[in-house]
Structure formats: structure tokens, C-alpha cells
Amino acid sequence: MTSGMASDRASGTRDRLRPFRDEAIARGVPADDVERWMANARPCATLTRDGSGEGPVVGRFGGPLLLPADIPDPEHPFVASLDLAALPADATDLPLPPDGHLLLFAFPETADDHESMGSAVYVPVGTAVVERDGHAWNPYDFDDYEAMFEEFPQGPLRATADVSLPYHHAVDLREKPGSGPLPGHPRSEELVAAWEHTREAVAPEGPLQIGGYANEEVVHTDPVARAVSRVVRAARAGRWDGPVSDDVADWVLLADWQAGIDVQGWESSSVHWVIQRTDLAARRFDRTFTEVFWNP
Question: Among candidates 277, 258, 163, which has minimal Cα distance to 219?
């Protein structure tokens, strides 16, 4: 991105965040604190089902499961496929491939510390694919799981280029039990409250998001940080191949799915696909870890 384009994006981001800035200042947060918080803004792509948005169609929820013949059947249900070439230019700051398809899989339920509850598969453009059994993830035909899968959303997805601010306001303390404000942001809790109050006017939420910050029903600390801690524990237990960084800055949110919007019985469930920056740059989507928040 050229310096001029970066400047235009920064200016556009400030304009979009004006309702948030006004709200935060009205709540008594000093302007300098608000400006530092706004510097954390990240671009993201909000995906909504066809008919509820005006952006280009960039993929779909559900549909035929098309994969290269040499890839094993995924262990989790098929959620969505994205046509990366159709995403709006600079919709995210992720180094995504310029084309090809990204397929997302997840089971929207929590698990033990060592288990990823989903996966991501990248299919380069021009790769030969074959249709797979979309129910292969449930070899024992559990009826309640099949009923859950039947409620997964279906249909085309439209993308809108949006802006994202943190939904979390605290970090776990290393020196002692408990948590504290985000480093450098003593008014972080008030700033998050201002964002929650104005987000719908700035960047309305959709069921699926690419890039940006992770969101879930109850947010205190960063969901990505929680996912990273699980990956680290899984690696130490020999359940996840390294190398694995324990620095959250080395990881990004690949995608967020608010599964509880559609899946009855799994209300409040949120799925977070996270990946190390180095793996994303190398297109190692097989090293995507999937964390689920669910408050049954």
C-alpha cells in the first residue's frame, strides 16, 4: 500500500469512527486516550447473507463441499466458503492470497484445552476438486449433532469493508492472579463501553467476519489471547505441531462466526479461527486453530 493510500485509509477510518470518538469524549474519556485507542482500529470484512447487505457476493454459507481429492475429510462440519478474489480490495490487513477459495469448518461447542474445534482449508485457483460427503464429520450419526448441523445457515454471503475496534478491555496479569486494563490504555473499559454503544452505527455486525477483532457474548480479555494459550498448551502436550509462539502479537484473527445467531440450542456460541502471522503469510492454513466460546 502506498503512503497516499495509507493516508486515505487513515482519514476514512477517522471519519467512520467519529460517532465512537464523540461518545467516548461525552463519557469523560480524555481526547488523548481516545486517540490512542482509535490507533488500534483494524480493517475487517463483515459478511452478511444475501439480501441483508449491498456489497459484492464473496462466498456462501454451506453449499456443496468441494475439496481436492488428496485432502482427508474434515473432522468438523462445513460452515462457509469464500472466494478470496471477490473480497473488496484492502478489506482487511491480513496477507490473504489474492485468489482461490478459503473453506471454514467448525463445531460450535467448547472442548478440552488440547482440541481445535474447527479448521480452515485453502484451495488455490485452478485446483481440481471433488464433492465430498458433508456429513462425514459425524461417522456415528448422532441425531442431536445432525439436528444442529441442519440449522447451519445457507446461502450467498455479501461483504462490506468495515472497521473494527477491540471488544475486550483487560489482559491477564502474569505476576499475580487477576487482570488489569490493556497496557497503555487506563480507560480501556470505558472505551469498550463507548464502542459497544456506537458500533451498530459505525460498522453493523454480521454473522461472519474476516480479520479485525474477535467478539463474543461476554468479552473481558481478548478471545485471540485465550486461543493462543490453548494452542501453546496443546503444543506442550504434543497435540499440536510447532513452532508455536506464545506472543499474542504473532497471531491474528482469521475469521469470526457468531454461530448462536442461527443455531438453536447453541445460542451465544462464537467461533474464532486464529493463525500465526508467519503461517498465514506462508499459506499454511492447515495450522489454523479454532477456539469456541459457548455459554450454554
Answer: 258
